[in-house]
Amino acid sequence: SQQIQFADDMQEFTKFPTKTGRRSLSRSISQSSTDSYSSAASYTDSSDDEVSPREKQQTNSKGSSNFCVKNIKQAEFGRREIEIAEQDMSALISLRKRAQGEKPLAGAKIVGCTHITAQTAVLIETLCALGAQCRWSACNIYSTQNEVAAALAEAGVAVFAWKGESEDDFWWCIDRCVNVDGWQANMILDDGGDLTHWVYKKYPSVFKKIRGIVEESVTGVHRLYQLSKAGKLCVPAMNVNDSVTKQKFDNLYCCRESILDGLKRTTDVMFGGKQVVVCGYGEVGKGCCAALKALGAIVYVTEIDPICALQACMDGFRVVKLSEVIRQVDVVITCTGNKNVVTREHLDRMKNSCIVCNMGHSNTEIDVTSLRMPELTWERVRSQVDHVIWPDGKRVVLLAEGRLLNLSCSTVPTFVLSITATTQALALIELYNAPEGRYKQDVYLLPKKMDEYVASLHLPSFDAHLTELTDDQAKYLGLNKNGPFKPNYY
């Protein structure tokens, strides 16, 4: 397929440094949001015989057809979803109010590739309110809320996305956002790196003129560092993933709440007394383990990093190798950012009705390709739930075909997304307005002062009151009274 041939051209995206200062995250050739097997290989879904959105002629109420969504008639329903999300995203709304007069993004032409949900719609509309023009596609083929995409299209955003896109649709949508007459992007907002990769590969002249890239996932950031190391990154990029307001909140608290939601909605599983193995004890793993432990599950952790492993031990979890517990566990959850963490050998040894799912951004953690073999039967049980049946009748329950569980099968708490979205908006404003030379062609962390500003915008929701340092205390600590309070490496 087109994608594999792409990956071959793209050596700089797929080779990685073995020893970097960062924890090396393996990345497969297959891109983050799709793999080279379409789900149609194993079964057909009733929606497959509907007309593809690409074939439909649709216009919004202003007569524009500069979008491609499932059904523009769902716009009103989507608008209500966005309004509900706005209630819990007060920081973005206050950012809109504060900056609406001066329009800090006037002239910005932002091309974006993120999950398209009610929450990201609030971000997109905030960027528009701050003066930007936006064109948007989805970074995951399952996470788009069709009615929200319709509402954005109705509001005049050029959005190209629907739930259940094929591999080909996925790249087509990204291409439609970038390749348009009389409009050239000057900023990129990406989640996973696929959009950046496409522009870099297909439109090098556009890539060179981009003023800044903002990336929010481990996977995408890893790919940016690879480009930078290879000397191929000719624009400044902001690594939002490793900013405190993303890592500590989106990854930890968001997953602590959404892991149970995704599992309950798909399988109705009872967690008390169940044996669960969580692969990876980074921020996502910590959140998942905390939630499962609270419901009475027996939780094992696998880790490669001795520091994370020791944290897991101190938190009361047994650290094991996957092969040691694979025969007895009831649920396997991956959250490593790596590839082939759960292999066919592991899947063969699982007990009947074991549930397997992935909470990491990349869909490469579970080797789903190895299950697309003639000796195994796939049975679609519910939306996003497959039973993979072995010749002896054993079944493994695979969720979302190994893709992101919470965004594919449930929703994510709005408030946490407000924190990440505000961070992204400020990163775009910062890069777009930075004076010539402030940012070189490299990957940067968000300045700590901005992280603290994002956090302070969210405190009023809890009626939280900050204490101020006295002059004497500030001098004693060697800090400015107004911050930043944390060193840059925090």
TrEMBL record:
NAD(+) binds at G282, E283, V284, G285, K286, G287, E303, N406. Binds 1 NAD(+) per subunit. GO terms for biological process: one-carbon metabolic process; S-adenosylmethionine cycle. Residues 26-45 have a biased composition (Low complexity). Its EC number is 3.13.2.1. GO terms for cellular component: cytosol. One of its GO terms (molecular function) is adenosylhomocysteinase activity. Substrate binds at T117, D191, E216, K246, D250. The lineage of its organism: Eukaryota, Metazoa, Chordata, Craniata, Vertebrata. Belongs to the adenosylhomocysteinase family. It is an enzyme of class 3 (hydrolase). Transmembrane segments: none annotated. The keyword Kinase does not apply. It catalyses: S-adenosyl-L-homocysteine + H2O = L-homocysteine + adenosine. Residues 251-412 form the S-adenosyl-L-homocysteine hydrolase NAD binding domain. This is Adenosylhomocysteinase. SUPFAM superfamilies: Formate/glycerate dehydrogenase catalytic domain-like (SSF52283), NAD(P)-binding Rossmann-fold domains (SSF51735). Its cofactor is NAD(+). Residues 1-65 are annotated as: Disordered. Keywords: Hydrolase, NAD, One-carbon metabolism. Pathway: Amino-acid biosynthesis; L-homocysteine biosynthesis; L-homocysteine from S-adenosyl-L-homocysteine: step 1/1. SMART domains: AdoHcyase, AdoHcyase_NAD.
